[in-house]
């Protein structure tokens, strides 16, 4: 089967690599245009584009999937199916109709739960114990198409969104190839989604990642894991942005909200309910480090995070 893969970030790499080693013919990839990065603001190809260029595979980077030149080239390539992982743009109906087996998307939740751009982050933030993978047929409505495969997984107690996404991406690549095999064999069965359990997972914004110390310690710990690695949970200390990468609630309830206590082997911060032990932090202008090591270097007079 001729396939054209659509994906952009690093989390999409396991899928495109699995397709390249499958029985299917990967004829091209579609990715978002090169984006400026770093201080130079030099345009840099996406991880999927860079991989395709390195492997001699044609790359299509339309500003928008409705661009006439893109639609013309897609039609010329005549894909049987277009698998998708984190492409980053909505596919219009006209483009969805080009491949005879449609566009098959890998989504990192058990649909209809957590439809949207940040399903893993929102699941961790909400404190659910189980999430998973859904392979489904793209339709114009957001993440609403019928599902071919679903598989559940347990979220680890200290697992960050980056760690969970990495794990789901590898397993999702295998499931995607299985679905494409079944589509080619004529054995695939798509099950319509119901509205029972429907929830949305909008993108996490930087401002939303700010830590509100009046919240409970367990909620803050989940918030920190959900925002790791992006956009990164943050607060301010002495007027400078300070990132918290990992933390866990403790049984102690002694500190005021945002108040710091530096002990010999750990650093605690008070919250609206319980104290929070900081595990990994990133002070302004520095690399991530163990919170205990950071705490030993604090100067006198530090009372707590800015509120």
Structure description:
Helix content is 26%, strand content 25%. With 307 residues, it is an alpha/beta fold. The chain is elongated. The mean pLDDT is 95.
Defining key terms:
307 residues, alpha/beta, Rossmann fold, Methionyl-tRNA Fmet Formyltransferase, Chain A, domain 2, 2 domains, seven-stranded mixed β-sheet, six-stranded antiparallel β-sheet, 8 helices, 15 strands, 26% helix
Task: Give the CA-CA distance, first to last residue.
Answer: 57 Å
Mind telling me the CATH class of the largest domain? Alpha Beta
CATH topology of the largest domain: Rossmann fold
Q: Number of DSSP helices?
A: 8
Helix content: 25-40%
Q: Report strand order across the widest sheet.
A: 5-2-1-6-7-8-9
Computed over alpha carbons, the radius of gyration is 22 Å
Proportion in β-strands:
25-35%
Order of helices and strands: EHEEEHEHEHEHEEHHEEEEEEH
Low-confidence stretches: none
């Amino acid at each position: 089967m001729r396939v054209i893969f659509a994906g952009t970030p690093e989390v999409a790499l396991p899928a495109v690599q699995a397709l390249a080693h499958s029985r299917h013919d990967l004829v091209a990839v579609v990715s978002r245009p090169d984006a400026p990065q770093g201080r130079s603001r030099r345009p840099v190809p996406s991880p999927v584009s860079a991989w395709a260029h390195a492997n001699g595979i044609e790359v299509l980077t339309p500003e928008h999937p409705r661009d006439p030149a893109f639609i013309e080239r897609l039609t010329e390539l005549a894909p049987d199916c277009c698998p998708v992982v984190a492409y980053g743009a909505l596919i219009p109906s006209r483009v969805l109709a080009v491949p005879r087996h449609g566009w098959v998307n890998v989504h990192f939740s058990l649909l209809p739960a957590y439809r949207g751009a940040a399903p893993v982050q929102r699941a961790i933030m909400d404190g659910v114990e189980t999430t998973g993978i859904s392979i489904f047929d793209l339709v114009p409505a957001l993440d609403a198409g019928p599902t071919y495969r679903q598989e559940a997984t347990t979220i680890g107690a200290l697992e960050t969104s980056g760690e969970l996404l990495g794990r789901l991406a590898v397993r999702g690549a295998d499931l995607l190839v299985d679905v494409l095999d079944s589509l080619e064999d004529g054995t695939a069965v798509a099950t319509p989604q119901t509205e029972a359990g429907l929830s949305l997972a909008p993108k996490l914004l930087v401002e939303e990642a700010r830590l509100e110390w009046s919240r409970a310690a367990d909620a803050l710990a989940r918030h920190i894991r959900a925002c790791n690695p992006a956009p990164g949970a943050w607060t301010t200390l002495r007027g400078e942005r300070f990132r918290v990468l990992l933390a866990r609630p403790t049984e102690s309830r002694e500190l005021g909200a945002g108040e710091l206590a530096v002990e010999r082997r750990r650093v605690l911060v008070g919250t609206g309910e319980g104290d929070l032990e900081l595990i990994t932090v990133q002070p302004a202008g520095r690399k991530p480090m163990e919170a205990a090591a950071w705490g030993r270097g604090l100067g006198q007079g530090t009372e707590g995070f800015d509120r």
